[in-house]
Design goal:
Number of helices: 0
Distance between the termini: 33 Å
Oligomer: single chain
Number of strands: 11
Helix content: under 10%
Strand content: over 45%
Mean pLDDT: 88
Shape: elongated
Low-confidence stretches: 147-153
Structural class: mainly beta
Radius of gyration: 20 Å
Largest sheet: 7 strands, antiparallel
């Protein structure tokens, strides 16, 4: 197998790589094979059906909301707890308050009892505890208020 040079953006949700197979083999017909890749999904934090979790280092929070690039199976899930610098859950943002996410999204907004506004934590160090079951998390991002057209934030 020999990969061709570069990636081709075939849509906003799909990148393609092409490979030639059986190149210079007289006993097989050469062919071109396409590999489909979701954008920005090369590496992930993964947990199988048994579950798992990950806690970030303390981050100085900026933005207003937490968005994840993640994917779960039909039986899988992702929940996020917001913690203080020492690892204690913040009021209203504990794991028990977290709304369960399942599905496949490049930009899934995390919520806690329907609330997504984390602006009260701006400038403070916080940790994010991600609890996964048969799921992958590829990236997390804090997103600023999008009503003014600003999408500033920090991608981790």
């Amino acid at each position: 197998n020999y990969p061709t040079w570069g990636l081709v953006e075939t849509s906003s949700m799909d990148w393609s790589m092409f490979f030639s197979e059986h190149y210079r083999r007289p006993d097989a017909r050469p062919r071109l094979r396409r590999l489909s890749i979701r954008p920005q999904r090369f590496v992930s934090i993964h947990a199988d059906y048994g579950g798992g979790e990950c806690v970030t280092n303390p981050l100085i929070f900026r933005g207003r909301e937490l968005h994840l690039n993640c994917s779960t199976s039909a039986a899988g899930s992702v929940c996020v707890e917001v913690q203080d610098e020492q690892g204690h859950p913040l009021d209203g943002f504990a794991l028990a308050d977290a709304d369960v996410f399942f599905g496949d999204a490049l930009d899934a907004k995390m919520t806690w009892k329907g609330r997504s506004d984390l602006a009260s934590f701006v400038g403070r160090p916080v940790r994010f505890r991600l609890v996964l079951k048969d799921a992958d998390v590829f990236a997390l991002q804090t997103v600023a208020d999008t009503l003014e057209g600003s999408e500033g934030g920090a991608r981790v």
